[in-house]
Design goal:
The protein has 336 residues and is mostly helical. The chain is built from 13 helices and eleven strands. Helix content is 46%, strand content 11%. It starts with 11 loop residues before the first helix and ends with a helix.
Length: 336
Amino acid sequence: MSNDVDEDGYNDSNRAFLQAFLARSTMTFEEAKPVLAAIFSTHERRPVLPEDVTQADLSSYIAAANTAISPFDLEIRSTLHQLPDDNGTNGGSHRVYALVNTTSDPLTQLATTYTADEIAFVKRILDAIFDTYNTRRSEAMVVTGMQAVQLAKVSSADRRESAATQQPQGGAAQSLTMQQAESVMKRLLDEGWLEKSRKGFYSLSPRALMELRGWLVATYNEEDDEGRRVNKIKFCAACKDIITAGQRCANRDCLGRLHDICMRNFFRMQQAEKCPVCKADWPHNKFVGERAITTTEQYQQGKRRSGNTQRVSNATASASAIEGDEQEEDAEGEAD
Ligand SMILES: [Zn+2]
Ligand SMILES: [Zn+2]
């Protein structure tokens, strides 16, 4: 293999790495090791083992790739996955690298491969995750498969809104069939926009959060009718990334939030388990993400009644999630 080196040192190894990355769109260090080992083996004409690949190797290849792709408004960014790694490697946390488009919003990005009605459905899913199921009482920021399918249908309120604002093809968005909605959800999973938890809840992937950060804040953190700022999108006080899974302060008006993986180091450095914002004692049992639902008594009762956790259907999970939400509101409404 010829190894054309450009004047800036960019070579075939860099090109091979970028191609491998483009094919996947996200990568962890563990996933990058065999890829880089194969590239190094070819380049150095001797076998290089995945274990010999270092974080510094990956960082230098990503830096070179970023220089090559920046003219196209693309960038490889990284974030820590908000939930602990199943394998418990790297102290339970893992960094995810993702190729992101640095300029456009999600609806524009989907425009080349999804129809206008499908994109309107995706917007309803995002509204459900960041508005409907992200309230002062319950910051779940997830949807169940059943809730997603129910959003296939355009509500009259959505229709009024889409008629009032711009629709690419003119005219209001049309409903999808249940099958169409399910296939869009599957594509969003396959393409790495969404993740599905073992308990069946859909959330935005780390890649999507990185890519959509600016758009999410602009869309969901607005002033309400009385001119009060609504912070639907909140940030981890330790790492400053968006938080959609982690823990929250017990004080409902406080914006103190921490990822589980950030919390341990943060409290160790503070030498006290206090809210980083209001300094109240940290409760450890107030959650952001699906645990805002799954730790409610209502959800757990619903699971017991079904008798078999494997058989908890989306419908059961969905119904108990909503009930659980209301139950918590009632219970805490009395306590307030
Ligand atoms: Zn964090
Ligand atoms: Zn607080």
